[in-house]
Write a structure and sequence with these properties.
The complex is a heterodimer of chains A (133) and B (504). Chain A has 133 residues and is mainly alpha-helical. Chain A is built from 4 helices and no strands. Chain B has one domain (2-503). In chain B, helix 2 runs parallel beside helix 4, helix 5 (91-102) packs antiparallel against helix 6 and helix 9 (206-224) packs antiparallel against helix 18.
Chain lengths: 133, 504
């Protein structure tokens, strides 16, 4: 329901390029208005189902998102292999609380397989760290 | 004879060693994705775009199409064995399929699902072969107003049919269209919404957006409700998989009906495999002489939705290839993939790239045969895949998505796009906004905008151009009707209620 509060984008363009974005923005703003009105009317009738199911779930979601952001940040400085293995280990060990043997083997094998597939078979230049791997 | 010639050309392309191999890879991955709950065909296709990036366009699309219809086969296995739909399109298969399994008839249920899928998939491919070329010829005469009307209709239908709230569907579609506006304007060359970021000049990366909206969002959502590990004791023998004569007798007619209906629903923009399976289940229940058997393990109730979702997957290829208009989330992602490979789907595709079009169509015949072989004798293998816990799978999906997105353009910015849209997609799902219209809007955005502005240039800003030309008039009318129908219905019901209240 809260999704209706998206702001309409600013429209400072000439009539040509700005034509569609302007009307789309206007349309979205209008629809949001309807949604807000609907939501406030309906809220009186029935309580909406809870958005966050549990604390544990929220922590898992947030830490995965944070881990992904961290991975993207560290990918270039650490190099592909190290960063991917670390990220995999983080997801398995910290988020999923898997046993450390499973964590270690799966994340290392995963990083290595991806490396072989993308770097060797598909010829992608994956980021390397200063040590060259 | 022309058609025969084209099909021959198609098989020539599809039977090359490389294409055969990748068709096999596609349908195998598709089955796997179908079997595993928590990862759907849209996600699978989105992740595959970067991986198949280096291949030629034909091979890449053969692989991705294989994933799409392969997932329709695999989804039934999970539905029948553990009563959890592997895909949204196999929800209806759960109802009677799991009941059959409970009665010890899992084998025939699985066999019937695979065979019905095969019959319907082959039927849909045949229908595609015969319907697509004439449709493409008609579409050649389309000008900008027709294209605008067509895309407009596609967008309204998708928003109508995806999710519970139509309003949220439309908002999601408009959001996609707005995102599509980012970058250099194709007509005037003006920069829009780039905020001085050079990576945004080219628009928001499609792969990053699609992978984010589907793969990352799905993973985040699944983290909330951890899936239980499944244990299966069922043993399968090949002989136990074949339905008996009685089963065939009750199923054959529903399979035929559902194939036709499913195909038609698939062709219509906006309604995909999921809706097709729901509608045929309802139809068969209504037409059945023993409707009370439905829900208690009737084999025709497994056969009908399974044939419908496969036929719809084939049907969805018709508007995609002939008009360049995707009918569902998965085909929208496929369209994005085609564009990335430099192909412009639409009527001209049949003339400019016949080897591509017919190669893909021919591969669908081959793929369906492969799937039948994969799904009948090897069903036990797929069932054992269910033992891999999602906990292990999740990091694999996330890292594969991230690397794939990076690999397309070798830049980290696309990964941030993926991250951003992953969060957006997650929040959208939490708030019941469907993601498919957004992707459709993103893919169709440039076409919508160009055809709209060209039309308005032709008519000097007069909106009536969309109504005065016969084809575009009809399509625009249909789109407006589908938008306004619920309002009219609501008004009518309110009116009736008021009248009833007045009477008492």
């Amino acid at each position: 329901m809260e999704g209706g509060r998206r702001m309409p984008p600013s429209n400072t363009f000439g009539p040509g390029a700005g034509f569609l974005p302007f009307w789309l923005g206007a349309l979205l703003a209008f629809l949001s208005l309807i949604l807000i009105v609907q939501a406030t009317r309906r809220a009186a009738e029935a309580a909406p189902r809870p958005l966050t199911p549990s604390r544990v779930a929220l922590i898992a979601v947030l830490s995965t998102a944070a881990g992904l952001a961290g991975y993207i940040l560290l990918l270039e400085p650490l190099g592909f292999l190290l960063a991917t293995a670390l990220f995999g280990a983080f997801l398995l060990g910290v988020v999923e609380r898997e046993r450390w043997t499973v964590t270690l083997s799966v994340s290392v094998v995963n990083a290595f397989v991806l490396y072989v597939v993308f770097q060797r078979l598909l010829g992608v230049n994956l980021p390397q760290n200063v040590l060259g791997f | 004879m022309d058609l025969f010639h084209n099909i021959l050309l198609g098989f020539q392309v599809a039977l090359s060693l490389q294409n055969l191999l990748f068709c096999f890879v596609g349908v195998t991955l598709g089955t796997l994705i179908g079997v595993l709950p928590g990862i759907g065909p849209v996600t699978g296709v989105a992740i595959l775009i970067p991986i198949t990036f280096g291949l030629n366009a034909t091979t890449a699309i053969i692989t991705m199409a294989g994933v799409y219809y392969g997932a329709m086969y695999g989804g039934s296995t999970t539905s029948i064995l553990i009563n959890v739909p592997g895909e949204s399109s196999s929800v209806m298969t759960c109802v009677d399929g799991s009941q059959m399994a409970r009665k010890g008839r899992a084998g025939p249920a699985l066999g019937m699902a695979a065979l019905a899928s095969f019959i319907a998939g082959t039927f849909a491919t045949l229908a595609l072969t015969f319907i697509a070329p004439p449709l493409a010829t008609v579409a050649l005469s389309f000008g900008p107003p027709e294209y605008f009307a067509l895309t407009f209709m596609g967008l309204t239908l998708v928003t109508r049919l995806s999710g519970e709230s139509m309003l949220k569907g439309i908002m999601s579609g408009v959001f996609g269209l707005i995102v599509a506006c980012v970058g250099v304007d194709a007509i005037s060359g003006e920069e829009r919404f780039t905020f001085g970021n050079i990576y945004l000049l080219d628009g928001v990366g499609f792969i990053g957006t699609a992978v984010g909206l589907f793969a990352v969002a799905e993973v985040l959502l699944n983290l909330e409700a951890p899936m239980e590990q499944v244990f299966l004791q069922t043993k399968f023998s090949l002989r136990g998989l074949f339905p008996n004569l009685e089963d065939w007798k009750v199923s054959l007619v529903p399979i035929g009906r559902s194939s036709v209906l499913g195909f038609i629903i698939g062709v219509l923009p906006g309604a995909g495999a999921t809706i097709a399976s729901f509608m045929t289940y309802a139809l068969e229940k209504k037409l059945s002489r023993h409707p009370e058997r439905f829900g208690t393990g009737a084999i025709e109730a497994v056969a009908a939705p399974e044939s419908a979702n496969n036929a719809a997957a084939g049907g969805a290829m018709v508007p995609l290839l002939t008009l360049g208009i995707p009918g569902s989330g998965t085909t929208a992602v496929l369209l994005g993939a085609l564009l990335i490979h430099g192909l412009r789907p639409g009527p001209l595709l049949f003339q400019s790239n016949p080897d591509f079009v017919w190669g893909v169509i021919a591969s669908m015949y081959i793929g369906n045969v492969m799937l039948l072989i994969l799904n009948l004798p090897l069903v036990g293998l797929w069932a054992s895949m269910l033992r891999v816990p999602y906990r292990i799978l999740m990091p694999l999906i996330v890292t594969l998505s991230a690397v794939g997105v990076f690999a397309t353009d070798n830049n980290v910015f696309d990964m941030w796009v993926m991250f951003f849209f992953g969060i957006v997609g997650y929040l959208m799902r939490k708030l019941d906004f469907p993601a498919a219209p957004a992707v459709l809007g993103l893919v169709l955005g440039p076409l919508v905008e160009r055809s709209l502005r060209q039309s308005l240039t032709i008519s000097h800003g007069d909106l009536s151009i969309f109504f005065t030309r016969p084809i575009s008039g009809l399509l625009t009318l249909a789109a407006l009707l589908s938008l306004l129908a619920p309002l009219v219905r609501a008004a009518w019901e309110a009116h009736k209620r008021a009248a009833a209240a007045a009477r008492t």
